[in-house]
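Structure in, sequence out. Go:
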């Protein structure tokens, strides 16, 4: 599975906003600098997140961006879906829309199972979970397995 730079930057920006939510609106430049994200790219991402209802923007000298909802009500999946679309697709198609024949017929349930597991992890972790370093137990258990950190 591949996480795009756009999705990674969006999640990091959302986490920064969550961690600084008591400081008022943050300027895109400040988020970009704090997270080492190219500023122009971040502006595009923040606009998508604004259109998707995840962040609010405020104009003016004291303006900037802030989360539209509490950090504990925004999942990592919400952020990724907002900037990228479906969490799992095959050749740009959602798994239920696929069909295979012959030797590949059993491939569809595999893609569906993969999607279910990705959803379970990413829908089950909120911005607040990550900023507080309190990942859900199942996620922590997966990450604590030494095999999870190796590349085959």
């Amino acid at each position: 599975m591949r996480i795009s730079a756009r999705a990674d930057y969006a999640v990091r920006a959302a986490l920064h906003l969550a961690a600084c939510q008591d400081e008022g609106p943050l300027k895109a430049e400040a988020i970009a600098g704090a997270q080492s994200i190219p500023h122009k790219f971040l502006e595009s991402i923040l606009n998508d997140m604004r259109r998707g209802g995840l962040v609010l923007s405020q104009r003016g000298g004291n303006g900037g961006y802030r989360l539209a909802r509490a950090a504990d009500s925004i999942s990592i999946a919400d952020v990724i879906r907002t900037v990228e679309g479906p969490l799992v697709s095959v050749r740009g198609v959602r798994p239920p829309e696929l069909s295979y024949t012959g030797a590949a017929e059993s491939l569809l349930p595999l893609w569906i199972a993969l999607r279910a597991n990705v959803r379970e992890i990413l829908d089950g972790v909120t911005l607040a979970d990550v900023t507080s370093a309190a990942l859900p137990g199942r996620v922590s258990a997966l990450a604590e397995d030494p095999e999870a950190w190796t590349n085959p």
